[in-house]
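Late entry, written up from scratch paper. The run itself happened at the end of the previous shift, but nothing got recorded in the book at the time, so transcribing now.
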Amino acid sequence: MSDLRTQDAASGSSSGSRRRTWAELLAGRVERQLRGPGRGHRLQDSAVHLLRRHLNLDDLLLEVEGPACKTLCLNQLGDPGASANLSSSFIGSALRDQASRLGVPVAVLSSQTVASSIMQICSSNGEPTHRVLLNAEQRKKLSSVLEVAQYLLAHSMFSRFSFCQELREVQNFLLLEAVWHLHVQNIVSLQELLESHADTQAIVAWLFRDLCLLCEQMEVSTQDTDIAQAMLSDFVQLFVLRGFQKSSDPRRNMEPERMAQLAIAVLRRMLIFALEALATGLQDESPVYKAVKCWFGMFCGHTFGRMMSTDCPKRFFSHTLTQVLTHKPVLKVSDAVRLQRDWSFAKTHPLLSSLYRRLFVMLSPEELIGHLEEVLGTHEVNWQHVLSCVSTLVICSPEAQQLVQDWVTRLLARAFESCDLDSMVTAFLVVRQAALEGPSVFPSYADWFQASFGSTRGFHSGSKKTLVFLFKFLSDLVPFEAPRYMQVHILYPPLVPSKYRSLLTDYVTLAKTRLADLKVSVENMGLYEDLSSAKDVTEPHSQAHQDVEKAIAVFEHTGKVPVAVMEASIFRRPYYMSHFLPALLTPRVLPRTPDSRAALIESLRRADKIPPSLYSTYCQACSSAAEKKPENAALGTKTEAICVEPLGLLAAALRELRTTMTDPTQYDVFSAQMAVVSERLSSALGLGEEDGSFEESQVQVNIFSPELEPQDQQVADLLLTSFCQNLIAANGFTPPDRQGPWAAHFVTSLCGRRLLPIVLTRLCQLLRHQGPGLSASHVLGLAALVIHLGECRPAVPEVHVASPAPVKSLPLPEFLSSLLTLRTAEASLFCLKFCTAAISYSLCKSSSQSKDILCSCLSPALMKKFQFILFRLLSEARGPLSQEDTAGPPWKLLCLPSADWQRAALCLWKQRTFQELLQEKEFHLTYRDWLQLELEIQPEFDSLSDMERWDFHQWAIHEHFLLKPSEAGGCDGDMQTACTVLVDVLIDFCQSLRSYNCLENSDLVLSCTGNRDIFSRLQEMAADLEQGPVAPQRCSPSQGHFLFRVFRRRLQALASGWDVAARLQRQQELLVYRWILLGLPPSILVGSPQNKQPATPDCTEFFHLVNSELRNFCCHGSALTHDITVHFFRGLLNTCSQSRDPSLTANLILTTCQTECPIVVTSALLWWPRLEPELHTRWRRCFQGPLPQELQRLWEAQLFGKSCLSSDLASPPPGPAWVSAAALHFAIQQAEETRIKSQLEKLNCQSEELLVVLFFFSLMGLLSSHLTPHAVDFLKAVDICAEILRCLDKRKVSWLVLFQLTDTDGGLGQVLLRLAPDPYIRLLPFAFYSLLSYFDEDAFIREDAFLRVAVDMYLKLICLFVTGETSAVSALAGRSQELQGQGDPVGLIIKARHFLLQSIPRCPEKSFANMAELLATSGHCDPEVSAALLSRHQAVSDDDLYQEPHLF
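Output as recorded:
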């Protein structure tokens, strides 16, 4: 400008005419202007306009005369170095002076000066144009300018309007950070800047471009991240606030409305950019990916947390969700049906899933469902976005499952009510999408379809119109849907009335045709194929291998052929024969010990489910495979290599899950990652194995030998390790009560049909077998896992504990508690640690919840084990609590690296909440509980010494439980009650699977696995009751001894009958009874003398036990075992020592035995050689006299038996005859060489009764030779019976009465029935026909009752064979060829039948008396023999009609 002025002056002077200056021109102009009102104001506006449009401010300031320093300060306004010493007031003064010289308002001049300085700053340093952030130098310069601008604004020397106008012209060169600084420092708001621009599209494009650049640069630049975050947050807040606020005044001006439109347009533009970028596919770490990730990150509570009201963000989130759901609705419904399996949560882009989760934060699940309904009802939608949103909703919201089900129910009701196709489509798409996420979050499609249409309550069952609508809809889906869904529709068809059955058959035909086109067969579906996964249908041979592995696993746990396999062999035979059996019978090298696969094959073969030819081919191929074993040795390595990738992906997903533990309360973030884990888990376990319901009602776990496949164990270890690490990480940030439901969600994912048995088996390995070796972090993690698994009890079946002993089912919490054993010192200490950690975690997690909820989380067994082991190991806990601790549970103490577990356990014991829990009845440690747990301890591995253990037992029994009231688990001070409970628990323990292997040797019942010191306590307490100061508490005779009361009660509870299972169970029980009786004082068997005269002890209870039980199971034929016999006679001697007349007492007891319990007498005769020395010695030492008369009579009977076998004359038999016969029978059995014929000749002068009873005893010996062949020689027993039978026949003594004994018989009959076990009496028909060849041919004629007895024995023999009771005697038939036909029940029946059919025609008329009654009850067993008997009887009756009457 100055150069132009100099040139003009020079030219003017040279031409001779001077040109006027700018001031003169203005002055002249002013003089020529007419003066008028407002003229000065108009001139001023014109000058301002001229300056703003055409002049450079710096040049203008140079032309204005003034102080040099003031001009300099204005030129260097944006230079902080040059203006550092210049105050804002000085600069303002300079601007005021210059404005007065120019004649323009100072506000206008100041605004233009500041705007010019800002532009210089933004364009300085030659920075690239594609930037939105200032560098450090620019930021420093801008700060100086804004400081001056604030001063000018505060002193009314700044025009916001003029400033906006200036910036509008250079908008494209303005950096976004500069605009943000102007906004936040209140120089001029962003709204003012935007509203000053007339071109809305241009301003939207500018903001969109700069916001995208800001998002990109924020992910790249680390030093400017905070500024960029603040910028983006402020901009988004402003746009949301201005775009989505509700106006209280509907008559507002248009400017705010324009701002709202502009804000919505910018936000929409950013969202569309992000959605389109996702649709085209994004590469990780690309600039666009970073921009989209950054923009979606703005949808969070941190961004909108400073807003006073949530109404605007809520409307913005709803609007955004609508835009997402309706963005580019180009997909048809048919596309959605075909492609929706690729839109599951795990397959949705993580950025889109994160956007959904962030939108869900502001909206409740109910609002989300309502919004989805509204959008689907009023807009064309993008089905991919809608269905991926549904997947995210059911994954991330625990309440969504029920809400989605209710929504689908409403859709179905609307669809069938008005045949609304849109509602029907929406319902099916939503259900299928939710079912893709697995049964842990939504029921499978098969279950939903069956529940919705498989009953008369379905919406389709209203009329024919609704049925037609349903099948028309299903038919329309056929060309597009996956084969899985058609298979569901075929296998679980809708319930259709018979008259409309054609609708269903038409659809099934159509669906099967489509499946055939897809080369998928319903018949070839796998047994365990998952119909809800909608994954690609696997090839039948591939699915068959998976079915085989699953069937083997089920068979291994149950011991039975799986139901699915048996059903397939009948109803799905093509798949079973063509695919399943070939996969099962894959040739291999058979193991030496048959494994589960071999056992399953054998079970199927026995059930005729494998064709013989196929089985033969399999066996030959296996034999050939043994020779080629080295060639296939690397197969296992290959299989392991194949499994590495799925396991690696699962491990990576679990590591990513651990990163979410920094804030475990973010449930949506955790749920999203858990969905990825579930996807990887399904791949690691095999396709479709995890989904679906439990096939069995119980989970099978073998606790004694838990085994897992290597891959299954690796999966379980990954999951359990991840849970432990996540728990430790979460505890580092927040206590359990504020961690949210992440742990419950994690554990729920472990409760699937395929995974839960694996997890429980691994827990069994860790807790039961490896517990003491676990680290502290593992103890804490697994303890918390057990608590959460216990909470899942309603959702999982009971655990079927498989073992060699009888199995039992346990609820899940009780099963987990049972894994904690106490056998050794190390196991006890681990149990203390684990229980302390589990209870502390539960108390800490549920600190703010009610006591009922807390009780439901804790297992009573866990609480009781904690109390037991605490009392046992820490004597400080045995005393009364001095003061309860009000502090929280010691969970924090346990999380420390150097945790003191015993101190933590005592701290928990003293904790007030814990003591309040112990008041609940279910948590009481009762006397019975204490005994059960104490019996588990093995003394040789106990942490307590023998003396410490005795002290603990004394405290527990006499000080703690004996005096406690029964309501609190004690004994009410009653010693008999304490003994009764102890005996009951002791028997239960001996019968349990812990001592299962020791029961055959009853002497080792507790020495193998139990704390035998407990039995010592029983002996001490029983002795106190018998002799000690508490003897007056002894029960009255009417009540009986406590020991026999326990026996009687337990025997009544056992199953009755003579089947093998019932007999073995009863025998096992009685073995324990015998062991207990032998360990207690023998006086219990006999009792104490009563006060009345004569002093007869009461042996009723022992006699009853012998007659009803011990006679059948604990005996040798017709005698009890030696130990119980000796114990009884020792009791007899003890009782006699307390009597005033010992001989009388002994005689009375033995006389009573002869009538009430004769087997005691025969037992004394059998064991007399070993019994007599002790009796003689003790009697002479105690009473100094001869043996009592009855004992002397036993000695005489023994002497009689021996004399009969000697060459001397036989001694006279003492009475009664059965005693002498028993003595003779035992003497014959014990003799090495027996000449029975010559010995029987010595009995010619003896009574017939003695011979008959001797024959009875010989029959018992014959049966013993079959039942216990190692004890009695069969041939010898037969010879003895034959010779006695000949002797009887020779003397014409009837012996048939022995085969007609009944309970109603008195005298000798009743005695004989009590001398033999009931199984022997039942097998008398077998003994009868075993002697068939020795029967007298004239017996039918000589004895009228012979035919009836023979027929009765034959019919009973058939019944015994049918019921299987002859199986015990059939084993002898195969021992020797010479015994063929004698020990074989079938051969014996054949001989007996032939004998009867030959003998019946020869029998006299009297032989058929009462035969009709016999045939009426059992004649159906052999119709031919019955017909022969009836025919012969009828013939005899007809002959009588033609005989002449005898009148005289």
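The first strand starts at residue 698 and ends at 702.
(Scratch paper discarded after transcription.)
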